[in-house]
Automatic annotation (TrEMBL):
GO terms for molecular function: snoRNA binding. Residues 115-132 have a biased composition (Acidic residues). GO terms for biological process: rRNA processing. InterPro entries: Bystin (IPR007955). Residues 1-132 are annotated as: Disordered. The lineage of its organism: Eukaryota, Fungi, Fungi incertae sedis, Mucoromycota, Mortierellomycotina. GO terms for cellular component: cytoplasm; nucleolus; preribosome, small subunit precursor. This is Essential nuclear protein 1. PANTHER family: BYSTIN.
Length: 486
């Protein structure tokens, strides 16, 4: 039997009846409060509890101090790890903190205005993939084969100085002809009579610090020559920071080649070369940009690889930046490099790694492949063909036909082909075996009877034999007894 819960006569109630409380209470007495609801109590507890995410002032100062130290370290790394002495020398180069004029220092009155409108980056792009190109190792036999395909007389390379000197000599010839017609004396550009039209004038380039006297283009104000000579001196010491406004406006000038020549690009630091490539790539048209690439950037890259057996990070990023104008890149760097006849496999590997990492318009890649296929063959040509084919672009049939002709033209060549040629042949067979005609397919199969490689040719043959050529009918599926007519 359950417990009786009814009130017993002697038990005491918890409180008086309501009417008794109302009669006994007064206006000043607080009303009796019951139990606070659980949800409201939880809200009050959260409101009164101190915020766990709150950081006091002392800890905030410590965090900010550590963050500032880390940022300073990153800035020092971006500037190339300059020491305090280097920092002082750099600021003196810009005309700041200089205690007095010294030998080699730029006079403060000749420092061009510095552009404060924007902050130049110092090449702080993602460099995780820098220099990750495959090292090409060839044996002595392949090296001898590649040497047989190198031209006996390499093509003569023109520099920016040669181009300007040609213009100066042409101007002198025009002045002489005009003077002869008028019966007067010809006006000759000072210094130009010492050199031939294609001889470098950098050997005796003279200014107040080096003691040279190199010829300058006519028609330029002496103040312009003076300012840009000082800009060139600054760029020969540049490591980081903003560039002079006078240098940034060069791409917009009609005679930008002459102005660029005054700055002596061959003396620029690698940091200045990268910044200049950014400016000229962004502001020059394709035709003008390819001149800058071929006359300035290509020589800097080849000289650095020849000297250090690898490419400097800033020059690598400059090369990568130049590929954003792909048409100018091919005309100004890739084609002159292949046509020079002196391109090394190290140079080809570096340039090929940049091509691999940057997306290129399909039509520009197709035009480059067609040009490489028609070019006089050297070993690096096969490497560039392989790299472009490995991008797996949908190429026009005209390019496919040109590549087939490129491989077939070596059928009767008595020289054995290097392994780079066979590798390019294999990539072509793997990627575009379905785009060749049946006649081309048969011709390529016959080619391997004359030009074969023990490790690569069987794979090429397998790819071609198991492919359906352009225009061929797909093989009919075998009869299956399980198929049912519906």
């Amino acid at each position: 039997m359950g417990k009786d819960t009814l009130a017993r006569p002697g038990s005491k109630t918890r409180h008086d009846p309501l009417h008794v409380q109302l009669m006994a209470g007064s206006e000043n007495d607080p009303l009796p409060q019951g139990k606070v609801p659980r949800a409201k109590a939880a809200r009050n507890e959260r409101k009164n509890k101190p915020d766990a995410n709150f950081v006091d002032a002392k800890l905030s100062r410590k965090i900010l101090s550590i963050a500032q130290e880390q940022q300073d370290e990153i800035n020092r790394e971006d500037r190339g790890g300059l020491s305090s002495d280097d920092d002082e020398e750099e600021t003196q180069t810009y005309g700041k903190k200089a205690s007095g004029p010294s030998k080699g220092a730029v006079s403060k009155s000749f420092i061009p205005a510095i552009d404060d409108s924007d902050e130049e980056d110092s090449g702080a792009e993602d460099g995780d993939d820098f220099g990750t190109f495959d090292e090409i190792e060839i044996d002595q036999r392949d090296a001898e084969l590649l040497a047989k395909f190198m031209p006996a007389a390499p093509k003569e390379k023109k520099t920016l100085a040669d181009l300007i000197m040609e213009k100066i000599n042409a101007q002198n010839a025009a002045n002489a002809a005009a003077a002869a017609a008028a019966g007067g004396e010809a006006v000759v550009v000072p210094g130009s009579e010492k050199k031939g039209p294609l001889d470098s004038v950098m050997d005796y380039a003279d200014d107040e610090e080096t003691g040279d006297n190199r010829p300058m283009p006519m028609g330029l104000s002496p103040k312009v020559v003076e300012v840009y000579s000082k800009v060139g001196l600054l760029l020969s010491r540049y490591k980081s920071g903003k560039l002079p406004k006078a240098f940034k406006i060069i791409p917009s000038l009609q005679n930008w080649e002459e102005i660029l020549y005054i700055t002596a690009p061959e003396n620029w630091t690698v940091h200045a070369t990268y910044q200049a490539t950014r400016i000229f790539t962004s502001n020059l048209k394709e035709k003008q940009a390819h001149k800058f690439f071929s006359l300035v950037l290509l020589d800097k890259i080849r000289d650095d690889i020849a000297e250090n057996k690898k490419l400097n990070y800033h020059l690598y990023m400059a090369l990568k930046k130049s590929l954003y104008k792909s048409k100018a890149f091919f005309k100004g760097i890739l084609f002159p490099l292949c046509e020079s006849g002196t391109c090394t496999l190290k140079e080809a590997a570096v340039v090929g790694s940049v091509i691999t990492k940057v997306s290129i318009p399909v039509l520009h890649s197709a035009a480059a492949l067609l040009r490489l296929a028609d070019m006089e063959y050297t070993g690096p040509n096969s490497l560039f063909i392989r790299v472009l084919l490995d991008k797996k672009y949908a190429l026009p049939y005209k390019v496919i036909d040109g590549l087939v002709d490129h491989f077939l033209r070596f059928k009767m060549d008595p020289r054995p082909m290097p392994v780079l040629w066979h590798q390019a042949f294999l990539i072509f067979a793997q990627r575009y075996k379905s785009d060749i005609t049946p006649d081309q397919k048969q011709a390529l199969l016959d080619l391997m009877r004359f030009k074969s490689h023990e490790g690569i040719s069987p794979e090429i043959r397998r790819e071609l034999m198991n492919s359906v050529a352009r225009g061929e009918m797909l093989p009919e599926p075998a009869d299956d007894d399980m198929l049912m007519d519906i």
